[in-house]
Amino acid sequence: MSSTLEDIVxxxxxxxxxxxxxxxxxxxxxERGNTRHNERLEFLGDSVLAAVVAHxxxxxxxxxxxxxxxxxRALIVSRNSLAHQxxxxxxxxxxxxxxxxxxxxxxxxxxxxxxxLEAVIGAVYLDGGxxxxxxxxxxxxxxxxxSDGAGETDYKSRLQEIVQKRHKAEPCYRxxxxxxxxxxxxxxxxxxxxxxxxxxxxxxxxxxAEQDAAxxxxxxxxxx
Length: 224
Known about the structure:
The protein is mostly helical. It has two domains: 151 residues, Ribonuclease III domain (Ribonuclease iii, N-terminal Endonuclease Domain, Chain A); 66 residues, Double Stranded RNA Binding Domain. The chain is 58% helix and 11% strand. The chain has twelve helices and three strands. A three-stranded antiparallel β-sheet has the order 1-2-3. A hairpin with a 6-residue loop joins strand 1 and strand 2.
């Protein structure tokens, strides 16, 4: 199973245990009394992905300002984009899932697929270093041309327009968690309407996290 995935992503693991960990959902680990699953690798892969994407966008669009580059990066590393790329790679068929996740369609769940793809990137980084993970990212997830122009998508404005039309009021955003060292923080944000959570998101800046939360809210509303 793992060798086929290695062919797809174009990388051979020296430590196959890292690949297995990247493909192990917590439901599978808990059912078997094992504490090792892919959430820590997901955290690491998210940071590596953001760094590679930011570097490539910086090189590819020398005339773009910080705002446009941030929007393009947010588009490429969004849950929606990663889930789509994971589906193209057929990552779902390699996952190790608990019986509950298996029976409820976990292999095709967008959030689960996006998280697993980040975990695989994190595993490659630990196994082969930054250059190896960069090559996997460029092979499997990086579509800079699609971000040109598409990066202008303003999910917050779209969400505000919809909520105002329906409820005559605006959504708000709340920072719920900050993780990572000072030089490489990850922000987690909720998009709220009153006490109701519309969506959740994360990013390397609060602005990116708010855009991702708005995108998640739109997806839940069927407006994506």
